[in-house]
Amino acid sequence: MRKSLMALGTALLLGVTASAQKVEFDEYTLDNGLHVVLHQDKSAPVVVTSVMYHVGAKDENPERTGFAHFFEHLLFEGTENIERGGWFKLVTANGGQNNANTSDDRTYYYEVFPSNNLELALWMESERLMHPVINQIGVDTQNEVVKEEKRLRVDNQPYGNLLTEVKKQLFKKHPYRWAPIGSMEHLDAATLDEFLAFNNKFYIPNNAVLVVAGDFEKGQAKEWIEKYFGAIEKGESIQRVKIEEDPIVETIRAEYQDPNIQLPMMVAAYRIPSMKTRDARVLDMISTVLSGGKSARLYKKIVDQKKMALEIASFSFSQEDYGMYFIYGIPMQGVSAEDLLKEIDEEIVKMQTELISERDFQKLQNTFENQYVNSNSDLESLAENLASYYMLYGDINLINTEIDMYRSITREEIRDVAKKYLKPNQRLILDYVPVKESNKN
């Protein structure tokens, strides 16, 4: 009885906390198509200004991969009213910080300033959109920056090509088949006119969402937004082609030799549906059951008890059109990849044939409640979530309601979704290994 009361108390506490975290926001659209989202939070004198553009690696010409990520760098070069090299100086001189990132689906820019510098942030982002300076000097400079980034983060990083290799095998038609960093040969071959055309096509107000979150006055913010963004011309509507992959019907086997590693890795990867689907959320839960911490099934059995692996984990890589589900492990010396896969498959079969216990299910629900509360605990995360739910999910209010979907998932669904997607004939088995002696120079 006491345990039941404690569980009830915990559930009530989580419920109160979650409801207290409800995110209030206003949204509207300018005449030029720019969508605006305002979230007021006066708890600290800070404001986040961000813009998400619906352009990522999947929007690139297959012969010009890397453009979306390249623009993440290029559009810090300067504008007609911000001298070359002046962007970061202007931010730091006014007590701010900024950054940007690119995925397969979108490109995101943001600044964090003391709240009295909101007008500056809005002006800067409008400059990036309306008056970017894209010239050969900037292109050549950022080309070298991107090459160095690729060397550091991919080419010379242990297991740095893992994601690239998995994508290449799981996707044969869809542009998810290449990585956002793209091809250096493609970037070298690109002309200035091609970069200008990419900017004109995708960096338009009707392909963007502007989010302002933090300590500001809504009326004043709206005036500034209209002042700086309202005059920007609407661009031509972007025609997007939906590309569908053929189903995977037999196991794909591949090997990649990485010169930066000494320990081999076994990877099982599955193509899964869009992050917008209910099944994708169920797979998130399956991942947590299998490897959400050291008490999860795979780690407890294979690392702790049987000591067959140094590391093991699973996770969903969620994307707008498709996702990928990874399970990977680094075997202990003397343990083969096949041995490791056999143990993993035993746990997958249990997920497919048995309901998880009520105790584990409650623990799972508590984990997702906690993640929900934490997901919007800082302004930077909250601003990006607002932009993502609007731009990629098509439902901005999911920032408040997605947790209800997770709450409604049943033990039976967990079993059935595992059975539907985690089949041996629907996956890639990748042996990610050190370079073999016979292949060394």
UniProtKB/TrEMBL annotation:
SUPFAM superfamilies per UniProt: LuxS/MPP-like metallohydrolase
Gene3D superfamilies: Metalloenzyme, LuxS/M16 peptidase-like (3.30.830.10)
Domain Peptidase M16 C-terminal: 190-367
Annotated ranges, domain Peptidase M16 N-terminal: 36-174
Keyword Iron-sulfur in annotation: no
Keyword Hydrolase assigned: yes
GO biological process, one term: proteolysis
Domain of life of the organism encoding this protein: Bacteria
Molecular function GO labels: metal ion binding; metallopeptidase activity
Leader sequence segment: 1-22
Keywords, in A-Z order: Hydrolase, Metalloprotease, Protease, Signal, Zinc
Family of the protein in this entry: Belongs to the peptidase M16 family.
Protein name, per record: Predicted Zn-dependent peptidase
Organism expressing this protein natively: Myroides guanonis
